[in-house]
């Protein structure tokens, strides 16, 4: 799996437009995959506003997404994600970004050895497993049963 | 690249798993079958479930699942209209077993569930209770996913999560982690992946 050049941590990317993209992108100079990606899917109904109030403590954490096996590699790997985003939310986001069908299965792993449950918040994962200011998550598209 | 699990390794991983479970009081134990000397992991837990959880939990992906469970239901069930349902919140007793399958050479998750009055859940009810995350895949092929089978050691009917693809997905993740010389407990990796489908979540400390 070829690794694309990683974007510097100093300018984290905002989440792709598929996720309630009302907010101003951070580090706006980064054209990158997020702004350029074709993402026709509308934001999920009822998804919370993602605006970050000025001056508040950091509500987002940096996540680095790495593909496992034959799973398609995301053009943009580094994302600033709200702490309260669940694994399920992240799975939905990656599936939309990669244009996978709802019925395809995508799993996320931490430390390449453990799949956090779908309702686990990424903020908690960052506290437990983050290092160098980011949380590395591996994702794998696979059939798990059937 | 296949990562088949030998039975001996299965037992070793289970031993590690039990050790951690004991440390954190997670309730898993190792049971052996009287006749055959085969062993398996076992855990029982109770879960409260609100029958009116909306199918599409994606819309609430920022809500803690517990909050959803205790939210007032929008359409209160009426006893006279819904046969067999008395409450909008129910306690269900789940029993999970992890057995080793010689034919597939992988662990297999067996489980059964019943209400407090002893009434077992039907296969339909089990399918309905699969986490929203996996409902789309389930609907494509419910019979491929969870079916009812006789427990190989106890001879009683249990539900089972189909193991035929286990090796496939385990291989993807394991070969990646092994490439980085990372020690991975097969059982923890596997159970953390498939468990949530049927309401079994492993605390983060297993990682």
UniProtKB/TrEMBL annotation, chain B:
Q: Which residues form the signal peptide?
A: none
Primary location class: cytoplasm
Its BP terms in the Gene Ontology are: autophagosome assembly; autophagy of mitochondrion; protein modification by small protein conjugation; protein transport
Source species taxonomy: Eukaryota, Metazoa, Chordata, Craniata, Vertebrata
Report what the protein is called: Ubiquitin-like-conjugating enzyme ATG10
Subcellular localization(s) per the UniProt record: Cytoplasm
Instruction: Provide one Gene Ontology cellular component.
Output: cytosol
Membership in a protein family: Belongs to the ATG10 family.
